Amino acid sequence: MFRIFCVGILAIFSLSALADDSVKQLFKKVNDGVVELHVTSIASPKPGQVTYKETTSKSLGSGALISNEGNILTAAHVVGKATNIEVIFTDGTKTSGHVLWVDNLIDLAMIRARKVPSNIKPLKLADDGGYTIGEQVIAIGAPYGVSHSLSVGYLSGVRDRELIPGTDIAPRLLQTDASINQGNSGGPLFNLDGDIIGIVSHILSKSGGSNGLGFVVSVDTIKQVIASEPSAFIGLIPHLLNEMESKAINNQYGYGMLIQHVVPATLADKLGFQGGYLNVMIGRTPVLLGGDIIIEVDGVKLKNLKSALSLRERFSKYKKGDKVKFVYLRNGVKKDVTWTVD
């Protein structure tokens, strides 16, 4: 009996050692493909601030290199208002990055690094559904600025959201108890094969730190978004107005996209659009008033989320030389500007 007990204990320790070794090998295999992002972004208004004057703030995030051309997956909230992105690789190489596209509804974005070290190989996306609740997973990122930190946990659940209007995408989030903190955002979650099964989005926490409730955008959703050929980022951070909000600000059209911010050196900046300057709260949502209100783009009236999202497909199909007309309100006066696609 004692002998059987000892054999059992040895077997448990052997399995544990094998698991630890597999995680060690996995970290060595995938770590180089994880990047650290130092981001300068347009700052949001401070609580209680009424008159807003644009400033910048610095933040930290992570990303996953997925192509030799320098394409990097990350979270939309990490780079969505970025004015400057510094990409840092494991070998110490620092380079700039620029935003290719942003999907705020899903919290996913793609940036491109200007230069990729020759010794850094891209990471692989897992197959659709390439995950199972209960399997061990690892996250790599820069929590609180501690670069390339490894955390190990389990896949705790699968959370499906409703279909996004006008698309065939119903975002799927994967839940994990792997430790996720500020700085992990945008970083990859791996299965034990070393394939990316998700990109870190957010946590649920009362303290602000990891409480074992982390959520990542699933690989299924990532592939759907990429396959949809997202339109290039034009540099607008909008707030979609409903009819009640439109009436409250005397917008006679009853709809439109109220511009919150315009990112410098983007198409929106080139076309001369202006963001808001008066900070108010609508329910629990801070909204900047005073910016331009775009009411129509290329003949499409921006009456709801579906019509706004329909512009994604249009923008992805424009060719050089096409002319796109934007109709907007500035201080109540209707104006328009035409963009010649270059």
From TrEMBL:
Pfam annotation, one family: Trypsin_2
Gene3D superfamilies assigned: 2.30.42.10, 2.40.10.120
Keywords: Hydrolase, Protease, Signal
Residues spanning the signal sequence: 1-19
Record bears the keyword Signal: yes
InterPro entries referenced in this protein's UniProt entry, alphabetically: Chloro_Bact_Ser_Proteases (IPR051201), PDZ (IPR001478), PDZ_sf (IPR036034), Peptidase_S1_PA (IPR009003), Peptidase_S1C (IPR001940)
Residue stretches making up the PDZ domain: 256-338
SUPFAM superfamilies: PDZ domain-like, Trypsin-like serine proteases
Name the UniProt record assigns to this protein: Trypsin-like peptidase domain-containing protein
Species for this entry: Thalassotalea psychrophila
